[in-house]
Amino acid sequence: MTDKHAELLYPAHALLGEGPVWCDEAKRLYWLDIEGQLLHCFDPEHGNDESFPVANRVGCFVPCRNGHFLLAAETGIEEIRWKTNGFEILETPVKIHPESEIPDNRYNDGKCSPEGRFWFGSLNKHRQPNQASLYVLDGCGCRTAITGATNSNGLAWSPNGNTFYWIDTPTRRVDAFDYDADEGHLSNRRTVIIFPDIVDIDGAKGFGRPDGMTVDSDGMVWIAHWLGGRITRWNPVNGTLLETIYLPVSRVTSLTFGGAELKTIFITTASLGLTPEMLAKEPDAGGLFVYESPIAGLPVACYSSSACAESCPKGG
User: Fold this and answer.
1) In what order do the strands lie in the sheet containing 163-168?
2) N or C terminus of the chain: which is more exposed, having fewer CB within 10 Å?
3) Is residue 300 one of the residues assigned to a domain?
4) What domain range includes position 132?
5) Are the C-beta atoms of residues 21 and 61 closer than 8 Å to each other?
C-alpha cells in the first residue's frame, strides 16, 4: 500500500502552530502560534497568510454566533472582533479566568460543543501531573468539568453530539464520555483509543503522543501526533487505527476540516524544541499543511451565550 502524505500549504515557520478554526462564511482559516504570540488568518484562495501579535500566549480561540471570537489567553478569556487590518479586544462585563491563582499553568486547547458551550483546558508549564483541568463556559457561567490532568489537549464531539472525546496527552489515550447537551455534563468515562509507547531515541520518528483532534462526518476520530510526524484516523468504537497520513515534520499539533465541502484537512505544526541539526532535516517545521480527504468533516460549532443548563434559572 502506498503511503499517504500531507502537503505543505504555507511555510509559516511557527514556533507552536495550533488551534486551526475554519470559518465558512469568511472562507478563511484562523490559527495560532502560541509561543510566537501570534494570531493568523490564512486565505486558501490566494495563499495569503496574515499574522497579528497578541500580548501573551493564547491556547485556543473559538468563533461566536455574534461574529466575534473568544480567546483563552494567559490572562483569561477575552472577546475579540476581527477587522480588515487585525483585531480589537472588546470590553466584557465579567473577566473569566478560573486559573488566575495558578501561575504555573496556562490555557491550552478548546472548542465549542454543538449547542454552543465553550470547553477549554489547561496545562502545567512544567508538566507536573494532576495540576491541570478542563472547564466549560456557557450563559450560566464557568465551571470545572475535569480535574487531575497534566495537559488537557484535543477535544471533539461525535456527529450526533452524544459523545465527547478528550485527550490528556501524557496518558497516550483518548477518553470518551456520554454528553448531556441539555445540562452540559459528562458521564460514563472510558478509554476508546490507546497510543502505543513507541518513540525513537531522538523523539522525532516514533508514533508520538496524541495532541489535537477532530471528528469526521462518519464519526471517526482524527488525531495529530506530537513527535510522531503524522495524523491518523481511528474507529472510536473498537479502537482500530484506520488510516495514516505522514508529514515531513515531527511536531504535528492539530487539525481541522475546512474548504467548500469540508474535505480539506488543515494541519498545524511546530518548530519549538528543534535543534539546528534537527531543523536542517525538517526545514518545513512550523508550517501549515493540507490533506484532501474523501470524507467530509463537521461544521465548526460557535459559542452562544444563550447556551445554558435547562436546570439553571437563566436557561431553558
Assistant:
1) 152-157, 163-168, 173-180, 185-194
2) N
3) no
4) 4-292
5) yes
Indicate if the pLDDT at residue 201 is higher than 50.
no
Average pLDDT, stretch 276-283? 96
Residue 202 has pLDDT above 50, yes or no: no
Question: Is the sign of the CA dihedral 279, 283, 289, 290 positive or negative?
Answer: negative
Q: Give 134-175 pLDDT, tens digit per residue.
A: 999 998 899 999 999 999 999 999 999 999 999 999 999 999
| Residue 16 covered by a domain | yes
* Number of helical H runs and strand E runs in the chain: 1, 25
CA atoms within 13 A on the CB side of 219: 13
Domain presence at residue 299:
no
**Gap between the Cα atoms of 166 and 253, Å rounded:** 15
Give domain status of residue 302, yes or no. no
Rounded to 5°, the CA angle 139-142-146 comes to 130
Average pLDDT along the chain:
92
- Range 291-305 average pLDDT: 96
pTM summary value: 0.94
What are the start-end ranges of the H helices in the chain?
276-281
Average pLDDT of the segment spanning 9-22? 98
The pLDDT of residue 204 is above 50: no
Query: Reduced to 3 states, what is the DSSP secondary structure of residue 248?
Result: coil
Which residues are CB-contacts of 20 (< 8 A; sequence separation ≥ 6)?
29, 30, 31, 254, 255, 256, 258, 266, 267, 268
Total number of domains constituting the chain: 1
The amino acid that residue 14 corresponds to is A
**Torsion sign across C-alpha atoms 230, 231, 232, 236:** positive
CB atoms inside a 10 Å sphere around CB 145: 19
Instruction: Give the residue carrying C-alpha cell 447537551.
Output: 181
Helix (H, G, I), strand (E, B) or coil at 278: helix
- DSSP summary character for residue 306: T
**What CATH number has the domain bearing residue 17?**
2.120.10.30
pLDDT in tens, 94-105: 579 999 999 999
